[in-house]
Amino acid sequence: MTKKERKTPSVHADLKGFDIHVDRFGELKSTLSVDQINEFLNKNVTDKKLEEREDVTEIKEKGKFNK
User: Which of 44, 52, 53, 55 has the fewest Cβ atoms within 10 Å of its own Cβ atom?
Assistant: First the structure.
């Protein structure tokens, strides 16, 4: 496989079309915005720091954390 050929990995259905790479200046380029990625992670990944809290379901439903 040459440098220009890239295989597309299998991803979650909500992330279909997601691609991320580093350009020649060292900047990360992505097909999804940071807000979209954070929304997906908040919805699908359990935060270990919040597992013991009683209001974790309320926090997860709101989609943001009150500090």
Answer: 52
Return the HEC string of 16-42. CCCCEEECCCCCEEECCCHHHHHHHHH
Taking residues 4-8, what's their average pLDDT? 72
- Which of these, 14, 46, 67, 28, lies nearest to 57 by C-alpha position? 46
CB distance 38 to 45 below 8 Å: no
* pLDDT band, very low/low/confident/very high, at 12 (cuts 50, 70, 90): confident
